[in-house]
Structure formats: C-alpha cells, structure tokens
C-type cytochrome (Mariprofundus erugo), 121 residues
Amino acid sequence: MFRALLLVLLLLPSMAFAGDAARGKVVASVRCLPCHHIDTLSRSIGPGLLGVYGRAPSISGVPFDVWDAAALDAWIASPRSVKPNTRMALPPIADRDRADIIAYFKSQTDAVGPVKGVVDK
Ligand code: HEC
C-alpha cells in the first residue's frame, strides 16, 4: 500500500510535465484554430503548424533556432514578451493547457517526422 502510494507520488510530476497530447489537440483546436491550421501546412492568419515542434521558426524576430518545448511554451505564454511587434495575440493560457498543447505538437512531429515547406521569414 505504502509502496504503491510512493510510486504514484514519484510518477505524478513526470506525468504532469509530459502533458496530455489528446487533450492538447482539443485545447489547440479551441485556442489556436481561429488563426492557424494545426494539422496542415497551409497558412491561415498565421503559419500552418503541422510539424512545428522541432523545426526552425518560419517567422522573423524570435530568438529561437528551433521550436522546442521551452520556446513554444514561452511563445504561447506571451507572444508579445518574445516579440513585441508580433501580430499574434491571445489571452493567457493556463500552464496545464500549454503543456498539453506542446505534448500534442510533439506527438504530431513524432508521428509525421520532419516537415519541409514552411519558409516564410
Ligand atoms: C489571433 C490569432 C492567433 C492565435 C489565436 C494564435 N496565433 Fe500563433 N500566430 C499568429 C500570427 C499572426 C503569427 C505570426 C506572428 C509573427 O510573424 O510575428 C503566429 C505565429 C505562430 C507560431 C510561429 C510559427 C512558425 O512557423 O514559426 C507558432 C508556433 C504559433 N503561432 C503557435 C500558436 C499556438 C500554439 C496557438 C494556440 C495556443 C496560437 N499560435 C494562437 C496568430 C495567432
């Protein structure tokens, strides 16, 4: 009993950190879909986000070489803190929602591999 509890306590933080990709797809559909296609490369108001996790930014003016978890988290937490003149504006997104959105994009890249074709800048 005690051991099982200990195991759950040990696993919880890593589970929270990993994020829930299935839930992230739903959250992204609500929060990002108004301006982005999240599972194609076609441009909407913003660039298509298919395979965004792990690729270089297609937009100018962001201090990242690659959209990894930390870069995506900083960007969707506060786009204007990263790039003051960006046109991407969105109301604050809860920590858990950001983690789940990032987990979704990561799972998408894991599934489709590197995506070529988005070169805006
Ligand atoms: C109000 C419209 C709007 C919403 C909502 C929005 N975005 Fe954006 N997004 C943009 C625009 C416009 C750009 C281009 C910004 C620039 O060039 O500065 C952009 C750029 C991006 C980029 C850079 C893409 C690249 O190819 O480098 C990422 C990543 C991104 N958005 C993720 C998201 C995510 C994830 C969400 C949902 C949580 C979201 N955005 C919600 C408008 C939006």
